[in-house]
Backbone:
């Protein structure tokens, strides 16, 4: 064999090996958000680029930085997600995952990835869904219905305050919503990692959105994997909206609810019963 | 742990072969010019090397492992390949180095965290320039130098002093030990809780859409853009300027939540980033606008943008003992740089075109006409993986009008070509290293090409085409 021919053969053989070695098993998972279709094959390199440091190569939340992060990164292999529009215990919709990627999670290491193109985000969601067998053949879950919001009157806010007391939200979130209730220090997530309840005085963003509808959805679906349960079985929609309106007054914002509440407090503060164990009689 | 995929190795081999096959020399073309023109041109040609020596000795680019450590994100989260920013990194930078997850203030950091990173680049490189004058005149020959070398060192200190208050301090030490301050600023972010209002004061990079500060080029001939630094023959000594240089002043900027729409307006002192008060009483202004479209399935959005730099420089001073008195500059004359650029993604292929036009007042050009020139470039990056990038660039600069009608119109024309590869053996959130290979060559008419090390002397004949080449292998690391 002439030297040139030998070289060509060697290069060809190397090329074939590289091609075969670099081949990736087909990742058939697809995601549909609005009019976009995401593909897991396209999502994989994006996951390697943006997500792997925390969520790990296998999506198990054991990336190299997981040991330094609190709260811990999501374990995609369990397909348990906090932010859903679906019933507690069910899978989220593609749109839920897409929104979570774009929005990030306040007070965690998960930033908003809204600078990524929508197509990139849909592709990422597709790849995230390959980590758990729960997605295989699963039908798209149906989101819960969010009824029309009732007016944010002072009566609604006061009733929401009563609901806050009755459902014992204060035990975790604290009487003032600072996340410092008597049970706060004992809470753990589904992986036995310590977890802190949400502090309403920290800002405008909730874990799963910023709107009243988002807040309604949080306590009607629960935050799976955390101690925050779903109250859909023991909370009527009207009560839920009243609770939303009261929770808005705990934020350091000039929301309509907060303004209504502050105006009422000027003349009625003395009529309020305390929230907490001593407020059980209200 | 160092791991290489078969795809990485195949591309490396291909690029290596391509570089090895590049021509090692080119035949210059000489012409005739009147001796007086040649003498005049040679007398003014020394301006450019002086500028280069003072600004090109350390990295022009920055990537900040300290941010990766702070947030636990790999380099690839913010960089297509470091140091070039991707859309997420641009948003992070626009937001004052804040991710926006209410964990940006230093109060959330471990007490042991320091917002500091260091970058340096051991290297071996070869530099070759044709048509270098030697004794006796008018003899010329090509000069080649090669050997091991080091870059300067950048100390990259950037972060947040408080939520929505950002700082940057970048002391640099040249390879010869000379210290300088590349950047020093404070930035007030999200004024009025709006991303559209941010104020930065100090010394900082101009809002160039194609950034030299996050450049993926390192060689003497590849590590700068003619469009950002060129000044024509005859420019007066008091007028040194480069749009690619960090400048001192104030910048108001803003952006949409995802930074797809961005603007900046800067008011700048007229000393090209040198500390101290300027000699004249004018100010420069820079305006930049861009918008990105979330179309296509590429690695990022498609962005288009425009920029304009408008300035004045004094051309007359009061003097004492024959020396100009700082602060007495008058007879301000104007200059401008305007241009448009884009960032186009076709899958993993990134195209970065730029076109620009520039003009100086005749007084700044040192003669009777307003020197005018145009430049255009196309830079391409193929992001094979998060750890491998192949790149190329071609830039042309053409004089449209010389300040002195006696100067040949082609004098100063330039063509610059560069190809390179950057491979990152590992990618995580503590530090970074790139194995950098680059070949760059430029051809200029009548003068030594702009070069990162400031070397090179103009040829005797202003029509001579001078080639300068750089071949570089470097180990670029930051921690």
Residues:
């Amino acid at each position: 064999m002439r030297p040139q021919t030998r070289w060509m053969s060697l290069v060809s053989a190397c090329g074939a090996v590289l091609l075969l070695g670099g081949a990736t098993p087909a990742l058939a998972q697809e995601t549909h958000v609005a009019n976009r279709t995401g593909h897991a094959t396209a999502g994989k390199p994006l996951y390697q680029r943006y997500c792997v440091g925390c969520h790990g190569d296998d999506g198990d939340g054991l990336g190299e930085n997981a040991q330094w992060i609190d709260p811990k990164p999501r374990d995609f292999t369990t397909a348990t997600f906090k932010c859903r529009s679906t019933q507690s215990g069910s899978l989220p919709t593609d749109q839920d995952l897409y929104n979570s990627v774009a929005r990030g999670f306040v007070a965690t290491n998960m930033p908003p990835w809204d600078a990524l193109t929508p197509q990139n985000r849909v592709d990422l969601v597709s790849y995230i869904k390959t980590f758990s067998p729960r997605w295989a053949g699963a039908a798209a879950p149906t989101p819960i219905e969010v009824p029309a919001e009732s007016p944010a009157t002072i009566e609604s806010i006061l009733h929401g305050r009563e609901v806050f007391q009755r459902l014992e939200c204060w035990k975790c979130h604290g009487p003032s919503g600072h996340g410092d209730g008597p049970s706060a220090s004992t809470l753990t997530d589904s992986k036995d990692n310590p977890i802190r309840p949400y502090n309403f005085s920290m800002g405008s963003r909730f874990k799963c959105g910023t709107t009243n509808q988002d807040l309604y959805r949080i306590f009607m679906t629960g935050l799976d994997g955390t101690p925050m349960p779903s109250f859909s079985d023991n909370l009527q929609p009207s009560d839920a909206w009243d609770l939303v309106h009261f929770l808005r007054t705990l934020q350091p914002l000039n929301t309509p609810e907060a303004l209504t509440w502050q105006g009422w407090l000027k003349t009625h503060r003395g009529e309020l019963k305390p929230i907490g164990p001593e407020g059980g009689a209200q | 742990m160092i791991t290489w995929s078969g795809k990485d190795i195949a591309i490396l081999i291909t690029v290596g072969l391509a570089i090895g096959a590049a021509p090692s020399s080119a035949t210059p073309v000489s012409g005739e010019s009147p001796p007086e023109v040649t003498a005049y041109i040679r007398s003014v040609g020394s301006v450019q090397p002086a500028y280069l020596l003072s600004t090109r000795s350390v990295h022009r680019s920055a990537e900040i492992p300290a941010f990766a450590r702070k947030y636990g994100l790999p380099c690839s989260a913010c960089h297509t390949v470091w140091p070039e920013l991707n859309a997420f990194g641009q948003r992070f930078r626009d937001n004052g180095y804040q991710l926006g997850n209410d964990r940006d203030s230093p109060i959330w950091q471990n007490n042991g965290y320091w917002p500091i990173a260091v970058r340096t680049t051991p290297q071996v490189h070869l530099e070759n320039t044709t048509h270098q004058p030697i004794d006796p005149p008018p003899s010329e020959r090509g000069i080649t130098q090669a050997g091991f070398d080091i870059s300067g060192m950048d100390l990259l200190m950037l972060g947040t002093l408080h939520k929505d208050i950002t700082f940057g301090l970048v002391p640099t030490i040249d390879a010869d030990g000379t210290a300088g301050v590349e950047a020093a600023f404070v930035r007030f972010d999200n004024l009025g809780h709006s991303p559209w209002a941010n104020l930065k004061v100090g010394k900082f990079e101009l809002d160039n859409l194609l950034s030299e500060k996050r450049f993926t080029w390192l060689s003497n001939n590849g590590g700068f853009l003619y469009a950002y630094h060129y000044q024509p023959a005859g420019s007066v000594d008091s007028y040194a300027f480069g749009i690619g240089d960090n400048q001192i002043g104030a910048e108001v900027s803003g952006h949409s939540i995802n930074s797809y729409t961005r603007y900046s307006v800067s008011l700048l002192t007229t000393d090209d980033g040198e500390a101290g008060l300027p000699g004249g009483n004018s100010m420069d202004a820079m305006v930049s606008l861009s918008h990105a479209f979330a179309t296509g399935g590429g690695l990022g959005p498609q962005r288009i943008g425009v920029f304009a730099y408008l300035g004045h420089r004094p051309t007359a001073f009061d003097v004492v003992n024959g020396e100009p008195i700082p602060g007495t500059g008058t007879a301000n004359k104007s200059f401008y740089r305007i241009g448009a650029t884009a960032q186009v993604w076709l899958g993993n292929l990134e195209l970065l075109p730029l076109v620009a036009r520039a003009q100086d007042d005749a007084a700044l050009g040192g003669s009777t006409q307003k020197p005018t020139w145009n430049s255009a470039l196309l830079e391409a990056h193929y992001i094979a993986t998060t750890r491998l990038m192949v790149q190329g660039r071609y830039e042309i600069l053409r004089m449209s009008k010389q300040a002195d009608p006696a100067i040949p119109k082609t004098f100063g024309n330039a063509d610059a070509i560069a190809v390179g590869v950057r491979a990152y053996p590992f990618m995580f959130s503590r530090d970074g290293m790139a194995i950098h290979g680059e070949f760059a060559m430029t051809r200029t008419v009548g003068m030594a090409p702009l070069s990162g090390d400031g070397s090179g002397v103009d040829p005797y004949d202003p029509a001579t085409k001078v080639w300068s080449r750089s071949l570089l292998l470097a180990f670029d690391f930051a921690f």
Chain B touches chain A at residues 5-7, 9-10, 71-74, 76-77, 87-88, 90-91, 99-103, 257-260, 294-301, 385-386, 428-429 (CB under 8 Å). The first helix of chain B runs from residue 6 to 20. The CA atoms of residues 78 and 88 of chain B lie 6 Å apart. Chain B has one domain: 6-478.
